[in-house]
TrEMBL record:
Pfam families: Esterase. Keywords: Signal. It comes from the Bacteria. It comes from Adhaeribacter aerolatus. GO terms for molecular function: acyltransferase activity, transferring groups other than amino-acyl groups. Transmembrane segments: none annotated. InterPro entries: AB_hydrolase_fold, Esterase-like, Ig-like_fold, Ig_E-set, Mycobacterial_A85_antigen. This is Esterase.
Length: 376
């Protein structure tokens, strides 16, 4: 997948999340409850059983308040001001299930909602809202053994910095001192950071629940910051200015050796996977093709596809997993997997129904990918 394709995917993400089709507002069910991501004690934003979101912002001196949802905060819901200085409003239609970024535009300025928690996305801290999903049980916090997500700091000679990564170790890692584990290197998307998969994606809870149910073999997950060449808003060329080489060096020459030295890993290609969402899929695609001796399992989540012609030695690839939301380009993912299968690859496609370029797609994708890893 090239950067132009990735930029198109990101552009599509800017307006994902809210269905702005014509909807009869009178049919909205008034069973709104505070979002589970609200700050303690805050009543708004609220969500109802249909997936609508309601916002209430106190801004007595303001003339205009708009709520913009999705990566980049495009589009939005204009709130109405009342005599008490509060602006209120409800989305024009139900939102997709799962997590969404959003921001406020108050008289032309960009702000976060003080009622909810903040999450790093779009190269800034954004407000977050959670629309309850029919299948949310797989990432729910349950009374099961839990693994740990810990911060590691490692020295990067190539960038002359100390860098940060988050490492998930499965339940029992500290006690099973002789057990070694395979490793999945799992990358975030454009404008996010190493916190995204555990905060927005709930990767650790997905793993804990699946391990407790006996659905997957325990493995380590490493989540690293992928914006190594430090592109920031306003950089000429934007996303197209991204250079994979600095991150590839950090990942292969510095982070992987650090993880293999400091954690009980099975340090070989057949026990190492790389996957990522959106831009993280672009990173995965490029690095796995550049360095086929490092990873045996590949996963692209809303991050493009592989073609049989790109892969020089099919014997080195144990699995290719391709996924997307049904509101993205699912046919491309399905066709790519079919072409790979016809060429002799172990390829699997997955389409998340009813979702777009958003975390519910990627949560579900991780749930589908995890049982396929390290089976051999």
């Amino acid at each position: 997948m090239n950067l132009k394709t990735l930029a198109v995917l990101f552009s599509a993400a800017l307006t994902s999340g809210v269905a702005f089709a014509q909807t009869n507002q009178a049919a909205v069910v008034e069973d709104f409850k505070p979002s589970v991501l609200n700050q303690p004690g805050q009543e708004f934003p609220q969500v109802n059983s249909q997936g609508y979101a309601k916002f209430r912002i106190k801004a007595p001196q303001a003339d205009s308040v708009r709520v913009s949802l999705g990566l980049g905060g495009k589009g939005g819901t204009r709130l109405t001001k009342s005599a008490d200085g509060f602006f209120t409003g409800t989305t024009a239609g139900p939102m997709d299930e799962g997590f969404h970024y959003y921001r406020l535009t108050v008289d032309g300025g960009t702000f976060n909602d003080p009622g909810t928690l903040n999450y790093y996305g779009s190269t800034r801290w954004e407000s977050g809202i959670e629309i309850p999903a029919h299948d949310q049980d797989f990432y729910a916090l349950k009374n099961v053994p839990h693994g740990h997500v810990q911060q590691v700091l490692f020295r990067s000679k190539s960038t002359n910095t100390s860098r940060r990564a988050l490492v998930y170790t499965p339940p029992g890692y500290e006690k099973n001192t002789k057990t070694k584990y395979p490793v999945l290197y799992l990358q975030h998307g454009w404008g996010e950071d190493e916190n995204a998969w555990s905060n927005q994606g709930r990767a650790n809870l997905i793993m804990d629940n699946m391990i407790a149910e006996g659905k997957i073999k325990p493995f380590i997950i490493v989540m690293a910051y992928g914006m190594t060449n430090n592109i920031r808003p306003g950089t000429p060329g934007g996303l197209r200015s991204f250079d994979i080489k600095p991150f590839q060096t950090v990942l292969l020459d510095e982070l992987i050796p650090y993880i293999d030295t400091n954690f009980r890993t099975i340090a070989n290609r057949n026990s190492r996977a790389m996957a990522g969402l959106s831009m993280g899929g672009f990173e995965t695609h490029t690095i796995t093709l550049n360095k086929p001796d490092v990873f045996a399992y590949y996963g692209l989540m809303s991050g493009g596809v592989y073609t049989p012609e790109e892969i020089i030695d099919k014997t080195k690839v144990k699995l290719i997993f391709l996924s997307a939301g049904s509101k993205e380009n699912p046919d491309r993912v399905r066709k790519a997997a079919a072409d790979l299968k016809a060429a002799g690859f172990n390829a699997v496609s997955y389409v998340s129904e009813g979702t777009a370029h958003e975390f519910q797609t990627w949560r579900r994708s991780l749930k589908e990918l995890a049982p396929l890893l390290f089976k051999n």
